[in-house]
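User: Is it possible to get a 3D structure for a protein together with its bound compound? The compound here is biotin. I've pasted both below.
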Amino acid sequence: MINWHIQTFASTDSTQNLLRNLLNEGAGEGVVIQALEQKQGRGRHGRDWVSPLGNLYMSFSLAPDCAADVAGQLSFVVAVALSRAVGRVQEGDHVRALKWPNDLLVNGKKLAGILLESDIKDGKVSYLIVGCGVNILSAPDEAIAIKDICGDKQVPIHPFRDMVLEEVNSVYRLWKEEGFERIREEWLAQAYGLNEQMSVTLADKRVKGRFVDLDKKGQLLLRTEDGQDIAINSGDVYFS
Ligand code: BTN
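Assistant: Yes, that's possible. Here is the predicted structure of the complex:
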């Protein structure tokens, strides 16, 4: 069980950077850096993560002591935990879905994103920096916020942050004790676009097929028209 050490800042460039500095100075697992706003929040693939006041922006450290190719499973651990936390506060029958590799959608719109950055030494992960951005009070166009799915109920940032950390603790413990399988199943039960046609943008090309499974490494399995299964471990996913 991780005993979280939380530090909250009014404003920073990116909580990822602050945490990385602390880890380079010797901090270990369980450090949480939260900012009320970020001036240069970033998302996957170097995109901006616009970070005004009112939402949750935090990065926390994990030291899973595993090989680099297993560490990708942690993004599913965190996605499942985030979904559980949102499930605790949402009201009504809004539909949560997990979009590969690590977006949380509600009613088909993005509510939260996860960014994993790692430090690898000799093929092993020395630490992981897990960044979570959750829209609570506001969301960009086309996205959704927690306030949109909670009726009249207010969901303050800090109690929600603590719920996320509690859920990360329990899903992470499950992963450590029992491995990836149960997390994979929980993720697949909420998978966005499972069995649907989609296209994946890879570094140099676009591949089309049907999203048929998530494999034991957390790779997306895409079945192409000629019946071939391709395992995808990064790239952007578009459902068409
Ligand atoms: C994505 O969906 O592209 C991932 C978004 C991750 C955003 C969070 S906010 C806290 C942490 N600090 C950052 O600069 N990014 C992550």
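The chain has a mean pLDDT of 94. Residues 100 and 237 are 7 Å apart (CA to CA).
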